[in-house]
Amino acid sequence: MPLVNTTEMFKKAYEGGYAIGAFNVNNMEIVQGITEAAKEVNAPLILQVSSGARKYANHTYLMKLIEAAIAETDLPIAVHLDHGDSFELCKSCIDGGFTSVMIDGSHLPFEENIALTKKVVEYAHAHGVTVEGELGRLAGVEDDINVSVEDSSYTKPEEVEEFVSRTGVDSLAIAIGTSHGAFKFTGEASLRFDILEEVARRVPGFPIVLHGASSVIPEYVDMINQYGGNMPGAKGVPEEMLRKAASMAVCKINIDSDLRLAMTATVRKVFAENPSEFDPRKYLGPARSEIKKLVKNKLINVLGCAGKA
After folding, report:
1. Domain containing residue 246: CATH number
2. Phi and psi (nearest 5°) for 298?
């Protein structure tokens, strides 16, 4: 099966009351763990590449890994640029074979965000590529994204309809209380479902995206801390909240920190229990298996997209 864009995926997800998992990839083991899990439960997939991942692993290497995953799984897979911050970066990814891109103009004034997003949409649609925009700003730190709580802002539902109609964007990331990184909440976790409901009312049938939606699974945080790490107070979005969002207008849920935590916790455990180990296969192999276990749970119990490929 060739790479696909997100159009048909999102249409089915919206109608079916589930979400597609958008998992960030940085190396072979992460790609394998994600795609092997999806194959076992027959789930559609979005593999996301950030600008940081592109710099780390190289565009060509990542695309070849994803091509291999498609050959091995025969699943519908979209390759998506996560948090593209310029027209030039989006164009480079489109020209390089990505089937979906995000242009994040959320830091710009409203009119400038519209202009930038529209420019990307026009180029992308001419090449059969779908585009995700963003309104509102998520707090947190991830790769090149660093937004303080003071600079974050919820999405204004009254702006969504105008933004979507004027840009022609295919999906929209909104800010309802999620955040990037592993330290999402200092107190009780809460999401503004009232904003999500109002956005869905204003643009019925339109696919909404949640960024910063890892659950920061306590099991992995505890393992990291047990085996020499230092992550006190790490807290994510409860999985039941994500399942509720997926049953509403949210068609794409981004997951990155949970993958990092699963890999890091497993590697730390292997080194602690086997301090003489130096074969990368002996610690990256178990890390890959843990990512696979994590992703299977997400696909079945959180996103609800198992069996939907």
Report:
1. 3.20.20.70
2. -60, -45
* Residues acting as catalytic residues: 82
Which residues pair with residue 137 across a beta bridge? Answer: 153
Cβ neighbours of 203 (radius 10 Å): 17
In a domain, 308, yes or no: no
Q: What is the pLDDT of residues 227-244, one digit of tens each?
A: 999 999 888 999 999 999
pLDDT grade for 180, boundaries at 50, 70 and 90? confident
Asked, for residue 230, whether it belongs to a domain, the answer is: yes
| Angle between helices 280-297 and 28-41 in degrees, nearest 10 | 40
Q: Are 48 and 6 in contact (CB under 8 A)?
A: no
Which residue range is the domain that position 113 belongs to?
A: 7-303
N residues, the chain: 309
**How many beta carbons lie within 10 A of that of residue 209, not counting itself?**
25
Classify strands 77-84 and 20-24 as parallel, antiparallel or unpaired. Answer: unpaired
Tally of domains within the chain: 1
Q: Distance between CA 305 and CA 291 in Å, rounded?
A: 17
Model-level pTM?
0.93
The answer to whether residue 32 sits within a structural domain is yes
Tokens read off for 168? 């022609």
In a domain, 309, yes or no: no
CA dihedral 203, 207, 213, 219 (to 10 degrees): 130
